[in-house]
Amino acid sequence: MDLIKKEAKVSLYLDTRRPKEDGIYPVKLRVYYGKAKMFDTGMSLSEKDFEKSYLSQKPKTEYQQLKISFMAIEARANEVIKELKKFSFEKFEKQLFRTKSNINNVIDHYDRYIYQLEKDERIGTASSYRCSITSILSFSNEGRKKPITHIPFEKINPEFLNKYEKWMVRNDNSKTTVGIYLRALRAIFNKAMENSDIDQEIYPFKAYKIPTGKNVKKALEAPELKALYTAEVTDPFIEKARDFWFFSYQCNGMNFRDITELKFKNIHDTYFSFLRYKTINTTKEDPTPIVVPLTSYVKDIIKKYGNKKVKPNDYVFPVFQSSMSAKERHRANQNFIRFVNQHMKRLVEQLELSINLGTMVARHSFTTKVTRTMGLEFAQEALGH
Fold first, then answer.
1. What pTM value is reported for the model?
2. Which of 98, 199, 314, 327 is buried most deeply by CB count within 10 Å?
């Protein structure tokens, strides 16, 4: 029988197997999920008091508070069960016994959300949140001999955030990086408020404005694209980097993670289609597939660098292997992007062009071109926005 389909059931149980010296017994939380497991509630009662409080439908006045306390324990247990996407006793116990200190600890909230992101295979987002809390801890620990393990939410006020921003800039971090880290912190605050773990009154982002970077996204114009595309290249690494850069450009500014995720089942007679990896786990409604025509250039790149088709679920390009974990795929994708960026920089230097040519420039160049020629609505559809 498939236990996953069952619902965990909770009740309170007076464990009369081992009476204490004063003749009372421990009250246990009994959870049944294929098997029963007991959890200590920290309360002890006589059999008479347990019967007249928990087991009574209408307890007398002197037992009513006990009944309320027991109901609160059951309610908390059922709340935890609902929060768990897939029940296990280990996860249930860890969530049930979060202390008040944990609930008011920013670090703990980061750790729990990063764990969930990694579980959902959103490794890039998890990495971003880890960088955020690591930076905040570095700031908070500066000058301390013993590292702190607890940051209460109320400590992070506008004054704290202003000092953190100045510290980041003083340590050669851009406003863009500050913004990325603090938007992650703001999301942690929002999640804590949604779960009623903290009071909305301590929310600091009404008084403090997160800085935004002023990086200019430069799109390449036709002469620059032509110079790159037609340049004589003898180095196979530069050739490969350029091929994939223009593959991204011609495939609707396709993100490089989507290129590495592309499978043979996505390819049809005259086009291929895909769902953006970035939005698969974040879009509540069914996302619309992005459709890309199979031009001669696209076909040539697939033929030149692609795997030999064996099964529909095989990856088109040999960046990922089916046996890789989510973390290994993330690392392989980052290495692939680093390879393209490194060798496109060499091509720029070879041509003596004063342009930045990272992988995202291909996407932005496509966006700019199609917006000018076809309009914003068409561009958004092509990009999957």
1. 0.62
2. 314
